[in-house]
Amino acid sequence: MVSDDCPCGSGVKYEECCAPLHRGGTAGTALALMRSRYSAFALGLEQYLLDSWHASTRPPGIDLDGDTEWRRLQIVDTTHGGPSDDAGSVKYRASFRSGGKPGLLEERSRFIRVEGRWLYVDGDARWR
């Protein structure tokens, strides 16, 4: 089971932060969706990741690496993506360990809102 703290690093308990979205709730902003997707990676929630991905760019499946431990999410900036926007982006850094080695993913993710629901479209990623 998940510890009390949300994996997204919001400082809020998981049950009050990303869990409602993982159970079918709707993110109010692109940032909230981005945080919930990070938590889904950390928790291995493959179906949630697919369900929150726009159909035009969604892969047929995701094979999450069970050896990857997602350690920390840092939000760098956001552009639009608020409750009254239909598009937005979030730039973030996510640190992880894989195969015993540290790594860093930097990405500017793009999101759109379709019929009131935020969806991940794509991103410009850099792995280090």
TrEMBL record:
<protein>
    <recommendedName>
        <fullName>UPF0225 protein FNH21_05935</fullName>
    </recommendedName>
</protein>
<feature type="domain" description="YchJ-like middle NTF2-like">
    <location>
        <begin position="29"/>
        <end position="123"/>
    </location>
</feature>
<dbReference type="Pfam" id="PF02810">
    <property type="entry name" value="SEC-C"/>
</dbReference>
<dbReference type="InterPro" id="IPR048469">
    <property type="entry name" value="YchJ-like_M"/>
</dbReference>
<dbReference type="InterPro" id="IPR023006">
    <property type="entry name" value="YchJ-like"/>
</dbReference>
<dbReference type="InterPro" id="IPR032710">
    <property type="entry name" value="NTF2-like_dom_sf"/>
</dbReference>
<dbReference type="InterPro" id="IPR004027">
    <property type="entry name" value="SEC_C_motif"/>
</dbReference>
<dbReference type="Pfam" id="PF17775">
    <property type="entry name" value="YchJ_M-like"/>
</dbReference>
<comment type="similarity">
    <text>Belongs to the UPF0225 family.</text>
</comment>
